[in-house]
Specification:
Elements: H1 2-48, H2 52-63, H3 70-86, H4 94-111
Length: 118
């Protein structure tokens, strides 16, 4: 009898954790969908104004967004390269270098062919 109660409680707790995770994941996806366009516009505005902190802040937010696409990745790469050519001082920024590494890693991840074992 005691073992049955323990199994039932364990099952209920696991179901509760699973439902909580699904709820959190669903809210996160909705939040990302609502913010991707505004973050993208803010990133472009920061690039136009040569505002490094804004570029890093919104660039990082856009890269980690679940709804980020390869098209935006390529455009982001192009915009930052143009910015560096226009403003050589920005090229020395460590903050911008970290963002460029994020872009590089994301493109590597999306362009890597994974082995299909099985």
């Amino acid at each position: 009898m005691e073992g049955d109660i323990v199994i039932l409680l364990t099952f209920i707790i696991l179901i509760g954790i699973y439902i909580s995770f699904l709820f959190w994941s669903n809210n996160r996806k909705k939040s990302h969908l609502m913010t991707i366009e505004s973050d993208w516009k803010n990133l472009k505005k920061a690039i136009e104004n040569n505002h490094i902190d804004g570029i890093v802040k919104f660039g990082t937010a856009v890269i980690w967004n679940e709804h980020f696409t390869m098209v935006k990745l390529k455009e982001m790469k192009k915009l930052i390269n143009v910015l560096e050519k226009q403003t050589p001082d920005i090229k020395k920024s460590k903050k911008l270098e970290n963002l460029k590494l994020l872009i590089f890693n994301k493109s590597l991840d999306w362009n890597t062919k994974h082995l299909n074992i099985g």
